[in-house]
Specification:
disordered N terminus, 2 domains, about 0% strand, globular, mainly alpha, transmembrane, transmembrane helix, about 75% helix, Low temperature requirement protein A, about 400 residues, 12 helices
Length: about 400
Amino acid sequence: MGTPQPGAGAEADGAGHPQEGRHADWLELFFDLVFVALAAQLSHGLHGDPSLRDFAVFLGLYFPPWWLWINLMVSANLFADDRPRRRLLMLSAMLCIAVMACAVPGADTDRGSVYALGYAGTRLVLLGLWWPATRYPEPLRVPRWRPLSYCLASGLLWAASAAVPAPWQYVVWAVLIAAEMALLLSARGRGLPARLDTGHIVERVGLFVIIVLGESVIALVTSADHVWTPRAGAVGVLGFVLLAALWWSYFDFGSTSAELMLARADDRRAYLLARDVGGFLHFFVTAGVLCMAAGLATAVEEADHAHLPTGAVWVLAGGLALYHAAHAGIALRYGRSPAAVAVWAVPGIGVPLLVVWAAGHLAPWLVVFLLAAEAIAHLLYARKLQRHRIAAAATP
C-alpha cells in the first residue's frame, strides 16, 4: 500500500524539478510516534460511561491536532528533503504536539492555554516549511500573503487565545480553525509549488489509520491486564476480531480504491480528492476508531457485568457507525452512486445503532460479538463484490 500508480503525480525539488514517487521517510515515521501518545490521551477521555459533553470535548480536541497533522503531511509531501533545517522544524512540531497531548486531559478546564500554545507553535513550524517557497521562480512561487496569513497570523492568534478565559477560548479556537479551512478551500490547489505525490499521501493517511487501530489493540491488552477473567478474555478476543476485520477491509479496499482514484485523476482533481478524502473525511474515520478503542477497553473492564454503561455502548457501536458513515461519504465523493453505497452503508450504520438500542438487554460480550459479526459481514461482502468485478472485467 502506498506505491504511487503511473500518473499519480510527483513532487518537485526546490527548483521545481519533478522527482519520483517515494515512501514515508524515517523522520515522518518518528514524527508519527507522538500521535500514538495523543491518540491514547484522547481515547482515555471516553473510557467508562462518557457523556455527550465528553464526546463533544473529544471531537473538539481531536480536530486541531488532526488538522495540523494533515498540514504537516502535505508540507512534507511537497518539500521533501533531509536537510538539518527540515529535521529541526519537524522535531519542533513533534515537541509542540507532545505539549498538546500532555494538555489534553485538562484542555477543557485548566490546561487550555498550554494546548493553545502548543498548536500555535505548529503554525510557526508550517511558516518555516512554506517560507522558502515564496522565493521559488515563477510559476512555482507561493505568494507571501498565504503563509503569512495561514501560518503566522493564525499562530499568533492561537497564542493570544491562551489569555482568553473559558468557555470563550473554545469559541476562538473554533473560529480560527474555520478561518484556516476557509483559506484552504478558497485556494482549491492554486499556487502549489509542486505536484502532490498522491501515493505518498495514501500511504501516510494509511499509517495514521494504523496508529489509531494500534491504540485500540493497546486498549484491549491493558484492559485485560486489569481484569483477568474468562469473560474479559472472550471480549478481548472478539474485540481483536472486530479490529482485524476493519484493518482487512480498509487496506484491501479502502486505501486501494483511494490510490486508484487519485492515480486516474488529473492534478487538480487529485488535489481536491486528496483534500476532501484524506483531509476531511478521514477525520471521521480515525475518530470512529478512537471511539471504538475506548469502548472496547470499557467492554473488557465491564465484561463480568450484566450490560455495558450507556456511554460505553455509544462510543463503541456509535464509533463503528461513524466509521462506516465516513466511508460512505468517501465512496460518494469518488462518484459512486447512492444506491450502490446504500447497499453496505445502511446496514453498516444501522446494525451498530440497533445494538445501541438493545444494549440494555445484551451482555458485554454479545455487544462486541454483534459488532464484530457486522464488520466480518462487511468484509465478506466487499470481497464478493471484488470477485464479481474481476470476473466481469475478464469476460470478453
